[in-house]
Amino acid sequence: MTGIYQNKVLNPILLTFNKPNNIIWVLAILHVVGIGGFSFCGFWNDWFTFLVPFHLLITATALLIANPEKSKGFAIRLILVGVIGWLVELIGVKTGLIFGNYQYEGALGIKIADVPPLIGVNWILMVYSSNSVLQQFNVNNKLILIITGSIGITLLDVLIEPVAINLNFWSWDNNIIPFQNYIGWFLTAVLLNSILTLGHKQNTQNSLALPVLLMQIGFFGALNLKLLLFGSC
After folding, report:
1. 3-state SS, residue 54
2. In a domain? residue 233
3. In this predicted model, what pLDDT tens digit does every residue of 13-45 receive, in sequence order?
4. Domain span at 190
5. Helix, strand, or coil here: 113?
6. What is the gyration radius of the CA atoms in the chain, in angstroms?
7. What is the value of pTM for the model shown?
């Protein structure tokens, strides 16, 4: 049993990082440079905040180009994830009923009806990455894929929230993150994971997904540590 468990857990990691894939290193460098840039206040912090939309687009584009599933149906599902993710955020911003009372600031670029389209891209990135990683770990049951992926995305938001507020991604009324936000994230992730997962089986075992997910965890984890030790700018 131990050998089978080790194969299921270790093989996806080893196969991913043993492949000579230059884009992994490019993305890793971008994330490390971003950690360095956001660790300083003033000019460097402002400059790297300006680059946030480009960083997000580069990461999402690289991930989707490496996607092994090229069908039209899968492309439509990804677009639906992004559009519905944006619409959920729109309802959330306008009503406060889904995540709580919050508003988007300027770091994520242009806004339509007070919500940046890039937040839809971010939902695609998170949902697709979690789905792909779970498939690499041989999780094939669709219900488990949806629930486990949604829990993972919600836990990632725990890391994202303090950093996002500090970097001017969005802000909360009274500067308090309500627990409702995490319930809203989980339910939204369930909806979007269902769109991607249900129906015919897609091959989303993307060799970039695990590194990108680990980079996201490392990026927000490092900046949370910076906030804990040195405070915000």
Report:
1. helix
2. no
3. 445 444 546 788 889 999 999 999 998 877 788
4. 2-220
5. coil
6. 18
7. 0.87
